[in-house]
Design goal:
- Helix 3 crosses helix 4 (86-96) and helix 4 (86-96) runs antiparallel to helix 5 (99-117).
- The chain has helices at residues 6-12, 33-43, 51-78, 86-96, 99-117.
- The chain has one domain (32-117): Histone, subunit A (Orthogonal Bundle), CATH 1.10.20.
- With 118 residues, the chain is mainly α.
Length: 118
């Protein structure tokens, strides 16, 4: 229940809500910023990254992720299956990413799946 004070009511002329209500908290947006920063420090420990560059990298990763999801789902439908496996994800990465980048992504993904499974 909301408490109303007589003074506030007389002053404003209308009922006033008390300030004991909680404010709505902002919905946190999930980003890859922390992970981008960690990878940057692994590769180049002495280099930093600006807020604008971080935003661009985050958009890039979200875009690649979305493309990979769409391609993976298409591959599942083409194969008339109902389960998305690592095989479809690997194939979608090979289709989306160019040359050497695809090879590195596939090897890192394979390594991650192997580590997860054991």
């Amino acid at each position: 229940m909301v408490k109303e004070t007589k003074k506030a009511e007389k002053k404003a002329g209308a009922p006033v809500k008390a300030t004991t209500e909680k404010k709505k908290s902002k919905k946190r947006s999930e980003t890859f910023s922390l992970y981008i920063y960690r990878v940057l420090k692994q590769v180049h420990p002495d280099i930093g990254i600006s807020k604008r560059s971080m935003s661009i990298m985050n958009s890039f990763i979200n875009d690649i992720f979305e493309k990979s999801c769409l391609e993976s789902s298409k591959l599942v439908r083409y194969g008339k299956k109902r389960t998305l496996s690592s095989r479809e994800v690997q194939t979608s990465v090979r289709l989306i990413l160019p040359g050497e980048l695809a090879k590195h992504a596939v090897s890192e993904g394979t390594k991650a799946v192997t580590k997860f499974a054991s």
